[in-house]
User: What shape does this take?
Amino acid sequence: MAVTIGRVLAFDFGLGHIGVAVGNESLGTAQTLKALLAVNGTPKFPDELKALFKQWQPEYVVVGYPLNMDGTDEEIGLRARKFGRRLMSTFKIRVYFKDERLTSTSAREEIFTYQGGYRALAKNKGRVDSTAARMILEGFFDLGGRNSDVEFCDPSSFLGKNYEGPDFDV
Assistant: This one.
């Protein structure tokens, strides 16, 4: 799969929805895409995930990493890391993990204020997650993108190692 220079996919991991955004590091821009339905954190329709990678051909991926407000890990954060490692192993792509504290709250506020209030929030549950994914990606770019000191995993450093679970069924 060829990659497009500077193109990035971002994910806001969730158990019922996985928010998705696409951006361009060179331009520092990001936009929301349709959220993926998930069952217990695994994409319900793996072909949709595969289609995202085929359509956008990202150079790398950013996954939001949820932390407690005091900076400590939480269970959902460990699951987000596992999701990121699965992306890395399935699509052979570098994955960055960006602190995502309060992005879902900010996304709800943005949708409520600028996109139609309570109706907009209730109409499309995945909209919050994809808006959060866009905010995660914008924050990543603000930190300097791949030149920042954000933690990442790379396929070349995991050759021959177990990725803590099977690849996605794509």
User: Anything to note?
Assistant: The two ends are 14 Å apart (CA to CA). The beta strands are 7-12, 17-24, 29-39, 42-43, 60-65, 95-99, 152-153. The longest strand covers residues 29-39.
